[in-house]
Specification:
Layout: E1 2-7, H1 9-18, E2 26-30, H2 33-38, H3 44-65, E3 74-79, E4 85-87, E5 95-98, E6 107-112, H4 118-132, H5 136-146, E7 151-154, H6 158-164
Antiparallel strand pairs: 1-2, 1-3, 2-5, 3-6, 4-5, 6-7
Helix pairs in contact: 3-4, 4-5
Length: 165
């Protein structure tokens, strides 16, 4: 199953250093039956984009928690065995937990914000708690960050991407 794992550039560096994506269970997003039912008219590409977008949104929380991380959202895309994925519909239609280790060989690509998004992502990370508490202004700040499309990188481009920051 293809999963979209929210991450940061700090965690991406650890992926290259250790050869694995974090420690399980890993929160992620995927095209789940609940997502298919909710977005019945969408084709697979649209559903995958929704899962990717959900993972990108979750990155903002990671950035809020890691004040030292560069303010660029990162989504790691991996193909993991179906039996290693547990759906978590009470969190989100596309939410999953990956219950086993995800080695670098299962990573298909990464999606990362362009450096021009840093200012908006920084504002969004600073506003995420306020948005949870119902601030419309904070929600608007989150949406500003979501307006930036993530760029696609092949796994062999991760090292050079990290060198550029």
């Amino acid at each position: 199953m293809r999963v979209y794992l929210p991450s940061t550039l700090t965690e991406l560096r650890k992926l290259l250093d250790t050869g694995t994506v974090g420690a399980p269970p890993l929160p992620g997003y995927a095209v789940t039956p609940e997502l298919r039912e909710w977005y019945a008219e969408g084709d697979l590409e649209e559903l995958e984009y929704l899962a990717l977008s959900s993972a990108a949104r979750a990155c903002v929380r990671l950035l809020d928690a890691d004040q030292d991380a560069i303010r660029r959202r990162v989504v790691v895309v991996a193909e993991v065995p179906d039996e290693a994925v547990r759906r978590v519909p009470e969190v989100d239609r596309a939410a999953v937990k990956v219950t086993s280790e995800v080695p670098l060989r299962l990573v298909q690509a990464v999606h990362v914000d362009d450096p021009v998004a840093v200012a908006d992502v920084t504002v969004a990370a600073d506003a995420v708690i306020e948005a949870d508490l119902g601030s419309e202004d904070a929600v608007f700040r989150l949406e500003q960050a979501e307006g930036h499309e993530l760029q696609w990188y092949a796994t062999q481009e991760i090292g050079p991407l990290l060198e550029l920051g």
